[in-house]
Amino acid sequence: MEWKNLLSNKRFGQESWTGDRDKARSDFQRDYDRLIFSSPFRRLQNKTQVFPLPGSVFVHNRLTHSLEVASVARSMANIFVNTLEEKNPQLIKDVPLINEVGNIVAAASLAHDLGNPAFGHSGEAAISRYFTDGDGKVYQNKMNESQWHDLINFEGNANAIRILTHPLKGKGNDAYALTYSTLASIAKYPCASIAGKQKGLLHRKKYGFFQSEEETFKRIANELHLEKEENEYLIYKRHPLVYLVEAADDICYSIIDLEDAHRLKILSYEEVKNYLLPFANSKTIEDRLKNDYEDDDAKIGLLRAKAINTLTNICADIFYREQESLLQGTLNNSLTDLIPEPYRSAWKEIEKVSIQRIYN
Fold it and tell me: Is residue 324 part of a domain?
């Protein structure tokens, strides 16, 4: 795969459009704005991130989470571009649209959770069980094996692609007409459901499109020259920018879930401080916490900001270093899997406490 093919401002469903370009915004900034003002994005405010019914304590929902992911992903991508300007300026001259990767991943980040049903993964499981154990079983003999796989393994990632590309009946019969690159940057698992659930393969851990959108995804993949795997089922390699969206998502929910857990008194101030301090990268941070802040929530907010900044820079550096494997489609790790020591151990401790005390 090559950057010159992977970055396209052509719009899905409006390929033949020849009108004037918006001089105030790039095509990818328009993607971001279209999503911000869309009904599916607004509905995220009613979907919990982790903690349901928190009462008067404000914690994050899917909407605030998506905005935060967009911010982190944009920063990560812009750091990558800055590194390119310093170390490989010829690539930027050859592929001017690479300057837009920050806007592309920001838009994709807004959309990355659009397809999640209410109650997140529990909602996905409930929909799946309706077809495996409930009244939905009667539909099995009315569809082929691949279609049935879609229903008994309902996947929010695939639903996002459907929402964003499916014609909106009664609303102009048009979809959101996002750019091909933004759509591809959402697809963490670019394969059909029957090819998914391969836990040893990052891009096939789940699946990324329903059978009803198979031809749609083929169009996206063909436009951007995504590498297709030799298989009886439809499987592609990831678009490289997926890794930035994924890393931003991982960073935001891992760090901010700690902050929310503190607000809800699931974890104490001292516990959360000790988990976040290794990422602070500051000799004066302890003095600042002691002398400049009285409120524990504010102290955690400072540590959260420091941690996100550190992890953003680390993952941007990994993304630059792994360009070759990303473009070859051979990287079988998320960027956060490749965080080096001493941060790796601290990251693993956060993952551990999150599973033991926040998510269960």
Answer: yes
- φ, ψ of residue 176 in degrees (nearest 5): -80, -10
| Contact of 188 with 203, CB cutoff 8 Å | yes
In a domain, 351, yes or no: yes
CA 37 to each of CA 32, 60, 107, 163: distance values in angstroms, whole numbers, following the listed order = 9, 20, 12, 15
Query: Would you list the DSSP string of 273-327?
Result: HHHHGGG---TTHHHHHHHT---HHHHHHHHHHHHHHHHHHHHHHHHHHTHHHHH
> Could you count the other beta carbons within 10 Å of the beta carbon of residue 279?
22
**Could you read off the pLDDT of 301-333 as tens digits, one per residue?**
999 999 999 999 999 999 999 999 999 999 999
Q: Which residue range(s) make up the domain with 261?
A: 3-116+241-358
Report the phi/psi class of residue 49: left, alpha or beta, with left for phi > 0 and alpha for psi in -120 to 50: alpha
Question: How many separate domains does the chain show?
Answer: 1
Give the rounded distance of the alpha carbon of 360 from its chain centre. 23
Residue 134 lies in a domain: no
CATH classification at residue 265: 1.10.3210.10
Domain assignment of residue 8, yes or no: yes
- Structure letter (DSSP) for residue 357: I
Say whether 129 sits in a helix, a strand or coil: helix
- At 272-309, the pLDDT tens digits run 999 999 998 777 888 788 878 788 888 999 999 999 99
* Terminal Cα-to-Cα distance of the chain (whole angstroms): 40
- This prediction has a pTM of 0.92
